[in-house]
Design goal:
With about 190 residues, the chain is mainly α. Helices cover about 85% and strands about 0% of the residues. It has one domain. The radius of gyration is 18 Å and the shape is globular. One of its GO terms (cellular component) is plasma membrane.
């Protein structure tokens, strides 16, 4: 079944859309607060589609992601009890917040860098940083460095790999897609208990 190759072709069409930078900016902003879709999912195909704009796209993603992180921080700081805590409870994320608190206690500011650079859900840490009243300026600076490194790395790899990498990706996209889907299901089944 060639579901993923068709989906990839559609994503590449969207990446060329004249409003794609606006969508990337919006996704970057809300992903830092609550959105589950990583910025890389838009950034990578947009950079492949227009490699000459790679650094612009990375800068856009970084700026709006850190702006969203600031908003997430504010939500945790000012609206934890009336809005955020009930939302966390309704989503069943209490354990994730407790884990984030424990990581803050153990690693301090470095946990923001780790969450901003890796696939760990950054949104959990932006809200938790506000709830814990972490110093705002260091939070923003570390977020800027971590998010910037991540997005410029993704854009750089896409720009560097270019047409050759895209050709290989297209060739194996369905196999990779199914393997990722199977891995996600297995991970869910193993971790749900």
């Amino acid at each position: 079944m060639k579901i993923f190759s068709r989906l990839y072709q559609q994503v590449m069409i969207w990446a060329l859309h004249r409003h794609a930078p606006v969508y990337l900016s919006a996704n970057s902003f809300i992903e830092s607060i609550f959105w589950p879709i990583p910025v890389d999912v838009m950034l990578a195909p947009m950079t492949l589609a227009k490699p000459q704009r790679a650094w612009f796209y990375a800068a856009l993603a970084t700026f709006f992601s850190v702006l969203g992180a600031g908003f997430g921080y504010w939500l945790g700081y000012a609206l934890w009890d009336p809005i955020v805590a009930p939302f966390i409870t309704s989503m069943g994320y209490e354990e994730k917040i407790e884990l984030a608190k424990a990581w803050f206690n153990e690693w301090g500011i470095w946990v923001i860098f780790i969450a901003s650079f890796t696939p760990i859900p950054y949104k959990v840490f932006t809200v938790t940083a506000g709830m814990l009243s972490m110093a705002f300026l260091p939070f923003v600076l570390v977020s800027l460095v971590g998010r910037g490194l991540r997005f410029f790395l993704v854009a750089g790899l896409m720009k560097w790999g270019g047409v050759k990498m895209e050709a290989k990706l297209i060739r194996y996209i369905d196999i990779l897609g199914w393997l990722c889907l199977i891995a996600a299901v297995v991970a869910y089944l193993l971790l749900r208990n």
